[in-house]
Specification:
By secondary structure, this protein is of the alpha/beta class. It is 41% helix and 21% strand. The two termini are 55 Å apart.
């Protein structure tokens, strides 16, 4: 049997005095589709760095077959020495790689290639790093949280791209649907060691729960054996007045085994601090409109949110989801229309940018708001250290500055603060960012039991399916349409997922040192008869589709249509989605042909 492309054996690494990895294993075969899962802080990213050769273990063996190429998507890419994102991505290409692929990947990820690496946001830096990792089509692709900061269109595009990848994949992600759709085997990193399931992530959780139950049963059996031996020590020895040293040694060994056993990590304990019940009507918006310059974010939106609703907002990055949340919560004034919050509404919010986090603040001070050492949860006072432990923080972290927390720890801290505030209306902007799968489960259970109302912005399809009772979708040009059910229900009704926003002013491709001269390329590329015909007819077709779109939007502009004629509303919504899809395809095709014509004509 041939050795794997990449093999990590008995990997050991200690950080800060405690062993993070203790005999971990990872084997990557040709064509593998592996997902690496585990709790936040379990060492997934560290193991991936060791696999990529970016970090050296304290002990163990890393074997990589000669000639095998490995690409690694790091959490924090290094942009030093690059003037724009296109040159950063192109630097990852080899002599035989397609020089146009760098630009193609950047555009699909919502970037032009002209961005200055020194001024990139966290999301832009992540997308540029993802483009560089994907560009050369390596034998092994190691991706650490590739969906972070991506919107729904980009996530679904990335899935399709990875499904067609030639090489093996190793994925670390907290996006359940992403893992279910791509993985064919699962490696579980737990308490420093790894266990492998040769099935996809969809079957992992049942398998994991079974293993944990078996461990619990074994621990219970060990406890009973210790109790029996202790009974013999107390009563059997005194009866013979002579100690059996062998049995005493065995008892000591059993006690040591139990004491030194590494238990599974604790679970987050979530409880929401409920306020008095709100009125039946929570949000009443009528004719809501908002624009920034020539760009329309919301156009003539009428919406009612009732007590107990769980409304999900979805759309591409830049569609205006956060702006709409600010309008609906009266944080931002509309250009036209009105918004009214219902009676007795007490709101608590979770900000995706974590702007409320002062890096110099301590955990205890942030959770209490500077109000002593106590928080009030569900009508009961609780010491802040005990509340911290519910969210897997250690008591000694009470005086730790926020600046020293990891991304996952900051996410848990923001969640803890939001749930500590009395509320009957939760506004959650990307609550799943940086949370591990087990914590996500508990957040979903908490929201299911929450008696109030929830407004949530998320790109996590599985989370929306489990939480949302309806989904409000950005259809473009300021139009927002509400669909009953979760994300999958929306796709079934709409006939398509969320469409991406087009990238403005794409950067012209730069000539590469190893590329052929431009004149040689022009000789090989020319417009076919069908291309010329499409260039002539597409403008008229796009104008026709725009007129059809206006008619469909006018029909859906009736705020009473959904309640009075639901069938007509459903038909109009489906027709609009089809028109939008056809128009987007026509515009993309025309732009592609026009750029080709300009390139050929010089």
């Amino acid at each position: 049997m041939a050795p794997p492309l990449l093999h990590l054996q008995n990997i050991t690494l200690t950080l800060g005095g405690a062993p993070l990895l203790a005999g971990a294993e990872l084997a990557v075969e040709p064509g593998d589709r592996l997902c690496l899962v585990g709790r936040n802080g379990s060492g997934k990213s560290t193991l991936l760095k060791i696999a990529a050769g970016a970090l050296e273990a304290d002990a163990g063996v890393r074997f990589l077959q000669p000639g095998v190429s490995v690409r690694y998507l790091a959490q924090e890419p290094d942009f030093s020495g690059f003037g724009d994102t296109l040159s950063f991505v192109e630097a990852g290409l080899g002599p035989t790689d397609d020089p146009h692929r760098a630009r193609y990947l950047l555009e699909r990820l919502g970037m032009t290639g002209a961005e200055n690496p020194q001024t990139l946001s966290g999301g832009e830096a992540r997308r540029a790093a993802l483009a560089r990792a994907l560009a050369p089509d390596p034998d092994i692709l190691l991706l650490d949280e590739p969906t972070n900061h991506l919107d729904l269109p980009a996530i679904e595009w990335l899935e399709d791209e990875l499904k067609g990848a030639r090489g093996a994949l190793v994925l670390v992600s907290h996006d359940r649907r992403f893992l279910q759709n791509l993985s064919r085997a699962t490696v579980w990193l737990d308490r420093g060691t790894t266990r492998r399931l040769d099935r996809g992530f969809g079957e992992f959780e049942a398998w994991r729960d079974k293993l944990l139950e078996e461990e619990e049963a074994a621990a219970h059996k060990l406890g009973r054996k210790i109790a029996a031996e202790e009974h013999w020590v107390r009563y059997g020895v005194s009866g013979r007045r002579k100690r059996n040293m062998r049995r005493m040694a065995e008892l000591g060994a059993l006690r040591r085994q139990k004491r030194e056993a590494r238990r599974a990590d604790g679970e987050v304990k979530l409880a929401v601090n409920e306020a008095q019940t709100s009125g039946r009507l929570v949000i009443d918006a009528e004719g809501l409109s908002k624009s920034f310059g020539a760009r329309t974010i919301v156009k003539d939106l009428s919406l009612r949110v009732l007590r107990g609703d769980r409304l999900g907002l979805v759309g591409a990055n830049g569609a205006g989801k956060t702006t709409l949340v600010n309008l609906l919560t009266e944080e931002l004034a509309p250009d036209a229309g009105r918004v009214r919050l219902g009676a007795n509404v007490e709101m608590a919010s979770l900000d995706q940018n974590r702007a409320a986090l002062d890096p110099n603040d301590t955990l205890a001070h942030f959770l209490t708001g500077g109000g002593g050492d106590w928080v009030e949860i569900a009508g009961q006072r609780k010491h802040v250290v005990g509340y911290m432990q519910d969210f897997l923080f250690k008591p000694e972290q009470a005086r730790t500055p926020v600046s020293r927390l990891s991304g996952g720890e900051r996410a848990r801290l923001m969640l803890a603060r939001a749930l500590a505030l009395p509320s009957n209306f939760l506004v959650l902007d990307e609550p799943t960012n940086d949370l591990d799968l087990e914590t996500l489960d508990l957040v979903e259970e908490m929201l299911a039991d929450y008696p109030g109302t929830v407004l949530v912005v998320s790109h996590d399809r599985d989370f929306l399916d489990r939480v949302a009772t309806s989904v409000l979708v950005a259809e473009g040009e300021g139009l927002w349409v509400e669909y009953a059910g979760g994300y999958s229900d929306m796709v079934a009704q709409r006939g398509a997922g969320v469409s991406a926003r087009s990238v403005e002013k794409p950067l012209e491709a730069k000539p590469r040192n190893d590329a052929r001269p431009r004149e040689d390329q022009k000789q090989k590329r020319k417009l076919s008869f069908n291309d010329k015909r499409a260039l002539e007819t597409l403008p008229a077709e796009m104008e026709r589709l725009r007129m059809l779109r206006e008619k469909a939007q006018a029909i859906l502009g009736d705020p009473d249509l959904f309640s009075k004629e639901p069938k007509k509303f459903e038909q109009a919504s489906a027709a609009l989605a089809k028109i939008e899809s056809d128009l987007s395809a026509a515009e993309d095709r025309w732009l592609e042909l026009e750029m080709l014509r300009e390139e050929i004509e010089g």
